[in-house]
């Protein structure tokens, strides 16, 4: 019985090369291969040497503070904090990712999932209104009789990709008395 080495047996069993392609007319055609090139950006440091530049410019961040709807036992309102890259997320998504309560009891069961068709994700912007997008048509429809500072979290984009700062949000403003 002839014995083969493992490498020879593996090479015989698996052919990793692509075969030549034969056309219907019997002419042999070679397949083309795609060569991918990776760009490398270099930066010149103070000493004059070049090094690969891997640091992307920092994106502006928005700091958010979410004030609870009811005071605690000591009389102060609870505050939750979060950060988000400017212009990339809706206020509703930031609150959900950070497990910050957004909905009242009815809204937990009957919300539209961020589609802007129920009006249950109402928040009040206490500070930093200029760091948010303008009210959408959906908000104008649902909040026409509400204060100008009230917004729908599912329609509110935090930042505009260029600005940074702090936004203070009152959760469940309808509970405030």
Automatic annotation (TrEMBL):
UniProt keyword annotation of Iron-sulfur present: yes
Listed cofactors: [2Fe-2S] cluster
Superkingdom, natural source: Eukaryota
Pfam families: Fer2
Keyword annotations from UniProtKB, A to Z: 2Fe-2S, Iron, Iron-sulfur, Metal-binding
Boundaries of every 2Fe-2S ferredoxin-type domain copy: 109-158
Record PANTHER family: FERREDOXIN-2, MITOCHONDRIAL, FERREDOXIN/ADRENODOXIN
Family, similarity comment: Belongs to the adrenodoxin/putidaredoxin family.
Name the record gives this protein: 2Fe-2S ferredoxin-type domain-containing protein
Annotated organism of origin: Eucalyptus globulus
Source organism phylogeny: Eukaryota, Viridiplantae, Streptophyta, Embryophyta, Tracheophyta
């Amino acid at each position: 019985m002839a014995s083969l080495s493992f490498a020879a047996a593996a090479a015989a069993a698996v052919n990793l090369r692509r075969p030549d392609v034969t056309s219907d007319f019997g002419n042999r055609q070679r397949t083309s291969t795609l060569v991918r090139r990776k760009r490398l950006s270099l930066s010149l440091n103070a000493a004059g040497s070049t090094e690969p530049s891997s640091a992307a410019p920092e994106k502006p961040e928005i700091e958010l503070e979410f004030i609870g709807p009811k005071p605690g036992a000591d009389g102060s309102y609870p505050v939750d904090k979060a950060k988000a890259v400017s212009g990339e997320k809706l206020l509703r998504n930031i609150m959900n990712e950070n497990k910050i309560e957004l909905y009242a009891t009815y809204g937990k069961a009957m919300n539209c999932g961020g589609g802007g068709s129920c009006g249950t994700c109402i928040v009040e912007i206490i500070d930093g209104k200029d760091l948010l997008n303008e009210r959408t048509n959906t908000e104008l429809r649902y909040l026409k009789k509400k204060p100008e500072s009230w917004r729908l979290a599912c329609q509110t984009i935090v930042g505009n990709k260029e600005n940074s700062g702090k936004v203070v949000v009152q959760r469940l403003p309808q509970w405030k008395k």
